[in-house]
Amino acid sequence: MPELPEVEVVRRGLERWVSGRIVADVQVLHPRAVRRHIAGGEDFGARLKGHRIGLPQRRGKYLWLPLADQPSAVLAHLGMSGQLLVQPEDAPDEKHLRIRVRFDDTLNTELRFVDQRTFGGLSLHTTTPEGLPDVIAHIARDPLDPQFDDAAFHEALRRRRTTIKRALLDQSLISGVGNIYADEALWRSRLHYERPTTGFTRPRTAELLGHVRDVLYEALTAGGTSFDSLYVNVNGESGYFDRSLDAYGREGEPCRRCGTAIRRRPWMNRSSYFCPRCQRVPRVAS
Ligand SMILES: [Zn+2]
Questions:
Q1: Tell me, what's the pLDDT at 153?
Q2: CA distance 13 to 73
Q3: Which of 36, 52, 158, 270 is flagged as catalytic?
Q4: Residues of the chain falling short of pLDDT 50
Q5: Residue 223: predicted pLDDT
Q6: pTM of the full predicted structure?
Q7: Where are the strands (E) in the chain, listed by range?
Q8: CB 3.0-4.6 Å disulfide test: which of 57, 81, 165, 198 passes with 116?
Q9: Domains of the chain
């Protein structure tokens, strides 16, 4: 699944290539791709037709295209392998093309939703007064959002009887921090993933948030990264970027700070990578 930086790269591509264009028609080539649009593919297309696409928005890993003239938005579910491509109208169809959106202009490009594994899709939703599709109204702001409230996040951390990595992946507290970026930020902060959050001080929370933002910005600067080679950004370039990671995926390799072998532990059906020397196991587990 693409993480925040990859989704932001796609959002920027859509902003450049799709924003402001009026939908001429929508072709749904596979019903699964619109299964989250309860009224079905025909209704989905009919509701888009004639409407102008507004400025593409993102919160955490969620991406949506607001319709400029009404309180609704197309939410993109990229799933494991979903891609949004802007292609010349005469480009041959991709093998796994699911939805085609044509525009009412002379740019001769169209928006395509391509998905090999059909976990993803597009759906139209009413937006909240804040401009979010209603189905994701509960998702917290992400740490790159200028309105993210650091102090409120710190207070929430202290109130919750949880551990730090669980908190970082809790979309109701902070959105857009996936497993990879959580492990990287924790390594930089020298924090073990099971450290209870109740004892966090303000400076500790501030340092951690700083590292979270750094790893996300660095990935964004690198053009987004993904470990799924199927993932392609909106211009059709591969989003895959062989980036240097300090913790994630480095089991048995030396910690870049102290040389100790990085360890991997099963964690909530995933893995946690950490340096056993720099990131000490907390004495009291919560
Ligand atoms: Zn170390």
A1: 97
A2: 17
A3: 270
A4: 225-232, 235-242, 286
A5: 65
A6: 0.85
A7: 23-28, 57-59, 62-66, 72-77, 82-88, 97-103, 109-115, 121-126, 263-267, 270-274
A8: 81
A9: 4-136 (3.20.190.10), 150-274 (1.10.8.50)
